């Protein structure tokens, strides 16, 4: 049984994830190599806050994982420069690109104990295939065996999360603008996220089932801490066989469906109202256009010239009649 670690969780900032991905793409892209670096941050009330990181030169034999090289002189020089930039950020651990623990990780962890008595190891999977966050945090502990044999060192997994401050959230949103498909609606995004969550839950349940099967078949030893956690999980599940629980869930579901139905009806009514208003507006616009066309025809140059010609003819005829009258009077 591993000795408990007094660190409840590890918070990792997006800047660290971006730095690790950049480190991997520069050094080990399209290879089976892994990259290693240092984690900087603070520890508050047992919570480890990983705020920054930098890469380290690292090489290891692909055939023999016990043969490796890490430039600790480079680490010491870089750490001194980072302290001049931000003295609050301390060396709290190290990272590698995984995706799983390796046999040489305990030896590398012992090397980093020169600079921190209890360093945290964060495995950041740069090519995640499973659902969930791409980070796993570990602390090295002494494992006490139930059979009384000597203790051995092992890694104890602790919860990890990705946290971001306001400035980091804005930066991440700007980076995701080029990746996010703006043609996908909000409803489609929500359904996709729920589907991914269900797939992640299914994979975790399969993992629990496989572990229990291996314990039942005595392939793995019994770990009472894991069994206690599983029991706590099962105790949190609601008992759906109780009549009051089923009735309450049915009422909640019916109320939710009623709200969705009413919202759909209101949306349909508003859409029809908008359609009718648009149709009336188009008819009014067409009527005004026809009236303007009639006004333009009545005021065309040909019409004005015809009216002027008829007016001139009328005035000429009147002048001729006046002349005839004057001539008649003169003869008399």
Write a brief structural summary.
By secondary structure, the protein is an alpha/beta fold. It contains eight helices and ten strands. The protein has an eight-stranded mixed beta sheet.
List the helices and strands and how they pair.
Blueprint: E1 10-12, H1 14-27, E2 36-44, E3 47-56, E4 58-60, E5 68-70, H2 72-85, E6 90-96, H3 105-112, E7 120-124, E8 135-143, E9 152-158, E10 160-162, H4 166-176, H5 186-216, H6 224-236, H7 243-298, H8 301-331
Parallel strand pairs: 1-3, 1-10, 6-7
Antiparallel strand pairs: 2-3, 2-6, 4-5, 7-8, 8-9
**Main β-sheet, in a few words?**
8 strands, mixed
The tally of beta strands, per DSSP, is 10
What letter string, H or E per element, gives the SSE order? EHEEEEHEHEEEEHHHHH
User: Uncertain segments of ≥5 residues (pLDDT<50)?
Assistant: 1-5
Helical amount among residues, as a percent range? 40-55%
Quaternary status of these chains?
Answer: single chain
């Amino acid at each position: 049984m591993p000795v408990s670690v007094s660190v409840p969780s590890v918070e990792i900032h997006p800047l660290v994830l971006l730095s690790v991905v950049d480190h991997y793409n520069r050094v080990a892209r399209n290879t089976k190599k892994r990259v290693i670096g240092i984690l900087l941050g603070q520890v508050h009330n047992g919570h480890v806050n990983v705020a920054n990181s930098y890469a380290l030169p690292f090489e290891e034999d692909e055939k023999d994982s016990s043969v490796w090289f890490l430039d600790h002189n480079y680490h010491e020089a870089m750490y001194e420069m980072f302290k001049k930039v931000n003295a609050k950020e301390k060396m709290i651990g190290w990272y590698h690109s995984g995706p799983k623990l390796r046999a040489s990780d305990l030896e590398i962890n012992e090397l980093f104990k020169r600079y921190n008595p209890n360093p945290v190891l964060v495995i950041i999977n740069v090519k995640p295939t499973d659902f969930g966050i791409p980070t796993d945090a570990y602390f090295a502990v002494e494992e006490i065996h139930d059979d009384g044999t000597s203790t051995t060192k092992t890694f104890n997994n602790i919860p990890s999360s990705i946290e971001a401050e306001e400035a980091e959230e804005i930066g991440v949103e700007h980076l995701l603008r080029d990746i996010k498909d703006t043609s996908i609606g909000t409803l489609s995004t929500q359904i996709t996220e729920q589907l991914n969550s269900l797939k992640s839950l299914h994979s975790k349940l399969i993992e629990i089932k496989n572990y229990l099967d291996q314990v039942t078949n005595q392939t793995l030893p019994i770990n009472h801490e894991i069994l206690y956690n599983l029991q706590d999980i099962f105790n949190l599940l609601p008992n759906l066989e109780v009549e009051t629980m089923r009735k309450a869930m049915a009422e909640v579901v019916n109320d939710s469906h009623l709200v969705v139905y009413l919202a759909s009806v209101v949306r349909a009514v508003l859409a029809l109202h908008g359609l009718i208003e648009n149709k009336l507006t188009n008819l009014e616009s067409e009527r005004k256009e026809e009236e303007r066309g009639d006004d333009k025809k009545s005021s065309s140059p040909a019409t004005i010239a015809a009216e002027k010609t008829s007016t001139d003819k009328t005035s000429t005829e009147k002048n001729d009649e006046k002349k005839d009258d004057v001539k008649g009077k003169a003869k008399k």
